């Protein structure tokens, strides 16, 4: 359960990729330019108002108090109070708008990733762990929340404050300003080093979190719990989880401590700068330099402190952005995954579907490296008729059936529906045309009615009952205390295998597709349950084009034609009687099936 199968994507190793990635992140905010412009205005206003306070303080110390001008003192004090009020109001408004924008961007990202995954072929999900997918959506996007909701605003706010404060400091005394800014390049260099270090650790941490999420998803599902306990592996699974969690502890500590001492030194140096300013002003005075008023020094130190706070915050924001780039990179991996199965630019839409299916010289392979799974398949299934597909395990039976609804796409040849290549049809037509009932029945953790209505959201209660009766499951549902409002449980575990199959059949009956794919729908059922499910399948198959993939040959003897697959090609084809008379592969399968059939 531990192999970490990631999508086949190589993250950018070259540092030149970072600017392109930053531009891509900025494009996420493009739809919200107007709101961000308002935030920018609020940030600028707040910065200007806050910078005004030291100048008011200078006037208080150098003019109002020494000259005893009480009226001016009152106005200046009122101005300082008003400055604080306006700064706070502007701050609240910019936080509200920026948080709203950030959450909308988060929503856009989540939706984009989910929508992208919905368009991926079945092959992607067969090689990717479910927990890995969930971790990308939950942990990676969730980890970016602080960045997209507050970091951008903090960056603009602090940058504006730094620029406004530096201008104000130069206006007060350019010599003291030079002293104050001497160490700034060193601080910037240190913050970049810390940011790169945290980015590397964050990438490792997110991979570890994804692996742990995959373990939880697999081992704490109903099936995982059953397997773990019946195999006596509960303690082993707990130890395995503990080891993964221990690895995460180390990464979390490293992530939080990365560059912490270097940033602490920066904070200490910045805190000591006021003493350096006082010392510089005092030495300059003793050496006969230009006099600096007390008000100027106090105002300058106030501005300096006002500079250091956003400067430190700006450096921390830079570190946070570097860290978040790792998360964005993992999200962009999924957004950049190639979509194998796409809709044509001008797809064909069919309102009326007869249901004729043809396989014309069909070839299929999972990738370019492996050999063909199917080759040279030429079969026609007339509308309303039935085709049974049999053969040994690994012959490609399910794959052939899945080519019709485009769960996979052919590598060569074509599959047609009513004479039209299924690749030329729009997805809506295919979804209406083809229904699939497989051995692995999936039910949501919701009520029976909600599971059935997944096929037809506007279905009436009477339609639900009619479909359930046709699927031989209505009486059982009606006997439950909550009837159709009964919660089926995780993956439908409140119901038996046969009951889940009949619920799936009722759901497909409600959908009413003209073409039906039955993928070994009764292979895991006992004889009695199989008979009930088969009766439901017979009701479902009436007047539909039906492709049945079967292990139990007793269920397909009445098929209009039977195709025997062997090594990816059609070895034999005909009716049950014709193939028995041929005494080939099909006859051998029938004899084997008879030997394996229970006597009671």
From TrEMBL:
Annotated ABC transmembrane type-1 domain residues: 37-323
Stretches of the chain forming a coiled coil according to its record: none
Chief location: membrane
Keyword Membrane: yes
Transmembrane segments annotated in the record for this chain: 36-61, 73-97, 162-190, 261-281
Membrane topology: Multi-pass membrane protein
Listed CDD domains: ABC_6TM_exporter_like
Keyword terms: ATP-binding, Membrane, Nucleotide-binding, Transmembrane, Transmembrane helix
Boundaries of every ABC transporter domain copy: 357-592
Key word Transmembrane helix present: yes
UniProt xrefs under PROSITE patterns: ABC_TM1F, ABC_TRANSPORTER_1, ABC_TRANSPORTER_2
Pfam families: ABC_membrane, ABC_tran
Localization per record: Cell membrane
Gene3D superfamilies named in the record: ABC transporter type 1, transmembrane domain, P-loop containing nucleotide triphosphate hydrolases
One MF annotation (Gene Ontology) recorded for this entry: ATP binding
InterPro entries registered for this protein in UniProt: AAA+_ATPase, ABC1_TM_dom, ABC1_TM_sf, ABC_transporter-like_ATP-bd, ABC_transporter-like_CS, P-loop_NTPase, Type_1_exporter
Alphabetical list of PANTHER family matching this protein: ABC TRANSPORTER B FAMILY MEMBER 28, ATP-DEPENDENT PERMEASE MDL1, MITOCHONDRIAL
Full protein name: ABC transporter ATP-binding protein/permease
Origin species: Streptomyces spinosisporus
């Amino acid at each position: 359960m531990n192999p970490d199968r990631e999508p086949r994507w190589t993250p950018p190793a070259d540092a030149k990729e970072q600017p392109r990635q930053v531009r891509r992140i900025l494009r996420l905010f493009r739809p919200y330019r107007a709101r961000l412009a308002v935030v920018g205005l609020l940030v600028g206003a707040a910065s200007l108002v806050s910078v005004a306070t030291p100048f008011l303080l200078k006037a208080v110390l150098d003019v109002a108090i020494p000259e005893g001008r009480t009226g001016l003192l009152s106005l200046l004090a009122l101005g300082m109070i008003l400055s604080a009020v306006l700064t706070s109001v502007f701050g609240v408004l910019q936080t509200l708008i920026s948080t709203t924008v950030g959450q909308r961007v988060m929503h856009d990202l989540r939706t984009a990733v989910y929508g992208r995954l919905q368009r991926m072929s079945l092959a992607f999900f067969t090689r990717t762990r479910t927990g890995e997918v969930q971790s990308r959506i939950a942990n990676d996007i969730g980890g970016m929340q602080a960045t997209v909701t507050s970091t951008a605003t903090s960056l603009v706010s602090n940058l504006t404050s730094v620029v406004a404060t530096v201008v104000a400091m130069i206006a007060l005394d350019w010599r003291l300003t030079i002293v104050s800014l001497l160490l700034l390049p060193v601080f910037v260099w240190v913050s970049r080093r810390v940011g790169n270090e945290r980015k590397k650790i964050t990438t490792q941490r997110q991979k570890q979190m994804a692996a742990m999420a995959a373990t939880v998803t697999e081992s704490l599902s109903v099936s995982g719990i059953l397997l773990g306990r019946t195999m006596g592996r509960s303690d082993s699974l707990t130890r395995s989880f503990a080891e993964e969690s221990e690895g995460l502890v180390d990464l979390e500590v490293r992530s939080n401590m990365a560059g912490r001492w270097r940033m602490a030194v920066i904070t200490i140096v910045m805190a000591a700068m006021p003493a350096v300013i006082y010392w510089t002003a005092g030495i300059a005075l003793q050496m006969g330099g230009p006099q600096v008023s007390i008000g100027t020094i106090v105002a300058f130190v106030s501005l300096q402190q006002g500079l250091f706070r956003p400067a430190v915050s700006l450096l921390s924001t830079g570190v946070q952005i570097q860290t978040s780039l790792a998360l964005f990179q993992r999200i962009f991996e999924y957004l950049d995954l190639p979509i194998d199965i796409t809709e044509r630019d001008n797809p064909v839409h069919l309102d009326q579907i007869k249901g004729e299916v043809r396989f014309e010289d069909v070839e299929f392979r999972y990738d370019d490296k492996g050999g063909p799974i199917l080759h040279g398949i030429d079969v026609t299934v007339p509308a309303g008729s039935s085709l049974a597909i049999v053969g040994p395990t690994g012959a490609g039976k399910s794959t052939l059936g899945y080519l019709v609804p485009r769960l996979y796409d052919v590598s060569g040849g074509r599959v047609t529906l009513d004479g039209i290549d299924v690749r030329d049809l729009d997805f809506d037509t295919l979804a209406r045309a083809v229904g699939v009932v497989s051995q692995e029945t999936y039910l949501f953790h919701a009520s029976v009615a909600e599971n059935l209505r997944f096929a037809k959201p506007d279905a009436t209660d009477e339609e639900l009952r009619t479909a359930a009766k046709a699927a031989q499951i209505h009486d059982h549902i009606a006997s439950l205390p909550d009837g159709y409002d009964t919660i089926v449980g995780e993956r439908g575990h409140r119901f038996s295998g046969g009951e889940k199959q009949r619920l799936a059949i009722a759901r497909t009956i409600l959908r009413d597709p003209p073409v039906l794919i039955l993928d070994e729908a009764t292979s895991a059922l006992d004889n009695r349950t199989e008979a009930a499910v088969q009766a439901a399948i017979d009701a479902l198959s009436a007047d539909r084009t039906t492709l049945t993939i079967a292990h139990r040959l007793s269920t397909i003897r009445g098929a209009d034609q039977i195709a025997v697959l062997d090594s990816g090609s059609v070895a034999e084809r005909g009716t049950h009687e014709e193939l028995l008379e041929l005494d080939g592969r099909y006859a051998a399968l029938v004899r084997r099936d008879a030997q394996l059939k229970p006597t009671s």
